């Protein structure tokens, strides 16, 4: 198949591209810069120049493809998640309109944070809670699932707060590392027993391919290799790697130390991927988040 991938040159997207090429698919990748275009061409990817601020152009590229994987998102400003999610929703609507009635696959990226705080491990059937961190992405989820009734084999891949591995420079864990280095201490909120799910970058890429090839229409999938890593353990691993003390923050003081990521750092997000594994035969094999922290993967962040 010829697959159109947005975010194709990014940390996760570049791994998805290699996964697709390795299985004999052809790939067209969205590139907004000369550097991104050159990187894609270097690995044998056809380039579609444009940005996610041009939904019509993205829709035109999607209409020519046999399937679409949508990974691009405005990660450069997590402090304005509503605006970023609004832009993403416009792209998702454009993609669903372009593919309606074709029975082609569309895989859209979402986040496990939308189903945090349930008091139990979230499952794939849980719908986005509008009161949770990252909830602004909920409308894109609903749009993706709904288009399954209009001739699109749509699926969602919910990514954990930590998609880890070499090259992760802009995600949540690198942000915590940078804050710990700047403040001279690595912090968790409260007793740190709240958890984040996690997945290695290559395992996430493998799931995107499986979803593209065989996920039933309207499926929600969880890319959680680890159901939940305690935030106290994550903070401790960061502190050990940097040689700085590890401290507990009162929830009322967390924002002063952690800034915009404080709400995510305090979120309890245990996430099951049992149905995903059973449905698609997905079996993660990469190192754990704590393994990567201990191995110094984030030392250069």
Fold and architecture overview:
The protein is of the alpha/beta class and 301 residues long. The chain has 2 domains: 2-162 and 198-226, NAD(P)-binding Rossmann-like Domain (Rossmann fold, 3-Layer(aba) Sandwich), CATH 3.40.50; 168-196 and 227-269 and 289-294, UDP-galactose 4-epimerase, domain 1, CATH 3.90.25. Helices cover 39% and strands 20% of the residues. It contains 12 helices and 12 strands. The strands form 3 sheets. The protein has a 7-stranded parallel beta sheet with strand order 3-2-1-4-5-6-10, sandwiched between helices. A 3-stranded mixed beta sheet has the order 7-9-11. Helix 1 packs across helix 7 and helix 3 (55-63) packs parallel to helix 4. The protein is globular and about 55 Å long. It starts with a strand and ends in a 7-residue tail after the last helix. The mean pLDDT is 94.
The averaged pLDDT comes out at 94
> What fold name stands as the CATH topology of the largest domain?
Rossmann fold
- Summed up, the domain count is 2
In helices, the fraction of residues equals 25-40%
| Gap between N and C termini | 37 Å
| Low-confidence runs | none
Q: So, the CATH homologous superfamily of the largest domain?
A: NAD(P)-binding Rossmann-like Domain
Q: Summarize this, please?
A:
This protein is α/β, with parallel strands linked by helices and 301 residues long. It contains 12 helices and 12 strands.
């Amino acid at each position: 198949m010829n697959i159109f991938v947005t975010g194709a040159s990014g940390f996760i997207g570049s791994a998805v591209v290699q996964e697709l090429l390795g299985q004999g698919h052809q790939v067209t990748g969205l590139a907004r810069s000369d550097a991104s275009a050159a990187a894609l061409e270097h690995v044998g990817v056809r380039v579609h120049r444009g940005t996610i601020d041009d939904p019509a152009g993205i829709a035109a590229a999607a209409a020519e493809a046999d399937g679409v994987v949508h990974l691009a998102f405005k990660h450069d400003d997590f402090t304005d998640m509503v605006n970023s999610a609004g832009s993403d929703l416009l792209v998702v609507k454009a993609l669903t309109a372009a593919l309606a009635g074709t029975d082609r696959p569309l895989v859209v990226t979402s986040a496990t944070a939308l189903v945090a705080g349930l008091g139990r491990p979230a499952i794939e059937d849980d719908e986005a809670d509008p009161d949770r961190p990252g909830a602004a992405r909920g409308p894109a989820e609903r749009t993706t699932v709904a288009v399954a009734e209009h001739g699109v084999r749509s699926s969602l891949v919910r990514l954990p707060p930590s998609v880890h591995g070499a090259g992760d420079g802009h995600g949540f864990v690198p942000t915590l590392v940078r804050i710990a280095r700047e403040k001279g201490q690595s912090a968790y909120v409260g007793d740190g027993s709240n958890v984040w799910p996690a997945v290695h970058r290559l395992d996430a890429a493998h799931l995107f391919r499986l979803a593209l090839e065989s996920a039933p229409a309207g499926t929600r999938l969880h890319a959680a290799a680890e159901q939940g890593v305690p935030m106290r353990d994550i903070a401790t691993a960061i502190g050990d790697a940097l040689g700085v003390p590890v401290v507990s923050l009162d929830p009322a003081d967390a924002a002063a130390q952690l800034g915009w990521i404080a709400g995510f750092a305090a979120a309890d997000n245990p996430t099951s991927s049992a149905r995903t594994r059973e449905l698609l035969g997905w079996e993660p094999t990469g190192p754990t988040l704590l393994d990567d922290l201990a191995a110094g993967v984030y030392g250069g962040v």
